[in-house]
Amino acid sequence: MTAAAQESPGTGTADGWIWSRHELDALIGHLAAEGYEVIGPTLDQGAIVYGPIRGVNDLPAGWTDRQEPGLYRLAQRDDDQLFGYAVGPHSWKRYLFPPLTRLSIAERNETGWQMRRAEEPIPRYAFLGVRACELAAMAIQDRVFLQGAHVDPVYAERRAHALIIAVHCTEAAATCFCTSMQTGPECQSGFDLALTETAAGLTVTVGSDRGAALVRQVGGRSANPGERATAREVRQAVVGQIQRQLDTDGLRDLLLGNLEHPHWAEVAQRCLSCTNCTQVCPTCFCSSVAEVAELSGDKVTRERNWDSCFNLDFSYMNGGLIRNDIRSRYRQWLTHKLGSWHDQFGSSGCVGCGRCITWCPVGIDITQEVAALRQEVSA
Ligand code: SF4
Ligand code: SF4
What we know:
alpha+beta, 8-stranded mixed beta sheet, 4-stranded antiparallel beta sheet, 14 helices, 35% helix, 23% strand, binds iron/sulfur cluster
């Protein structure tokens, strides 16, 4: 009988358990057998992205990422860590709030047009490798999609079934600033299990009854005091790696009180309005709805697609555009993300993941733009 079968893994006990890769592989197999679609980090398209995984061999062992404003490169590590990277261009929102969703279908028959909801199977996801900033991003999207006056049924169904296996960061990118946003690098809540990768294996913290049941199924053994101490040290060491900062003191009022500041025009000289920053952002949620007709003229599908406040058409209303230059579109993004989001949802809309900095083709850096505006206003 395994140690896990003899003892009961307690919810909330940090690093109570330890797994080898064999147990992690067993977990992935067990989840698949239970009907979960297991999504995790994998090497593809020259990056570490999220996709379906079938075992430990699909994880990016021995790889890491190097990130700077406007730059992302894979690099080989000098060890074979499974989770020794920061975050890539994907976020979990692509699974909970998909880039394209079929909402409804209208079909013409002998009696006229019939409308019905597009019946899509509800996926049952198990997310492996969720970082602290990404847990914070999910909590923000929960507020947007679930906790307002109008609950989004597509998000609600996917979120209700999702199992979260978090991984504490052991490597920060140069673009990370989660410490400024108080979202990381350590996972605090919102997970079923949280893993820390050390030379001895993967320590396991149980965060829910579902997580405890999984540990009982998979096995493993109790972590000893030395292994727990090492896991704590590994997590603490990452804090020192995070150099980028965003000064959030009075930030909402600074932004909303300077809507006509010349700095917005200066950023607009560099911004391409390409939408990359919004597409990679784990909290951005703008979408639009289109009706797509088949050539026969007998069937029309209503689809929801990700959209962006950087798209010209996104501000079209009442016969005109209200944000017809890049200056106003960049200002809208930044002032909403860091300012009016507080009024709307009770928190910042930024978790400090740094994706918008890395994937901006001209390297516009949200932390530097805020610092520049702050400096110019106080000069
Ligand atoms: S605004 Fe940038 S740093 Fe903040 S959550 Fe979005 S992508 Fe990450
Ligand atoms: S800030 Fe960068 S990523 Fe965002 S729209 Fe402008 S050019 Fe594109």
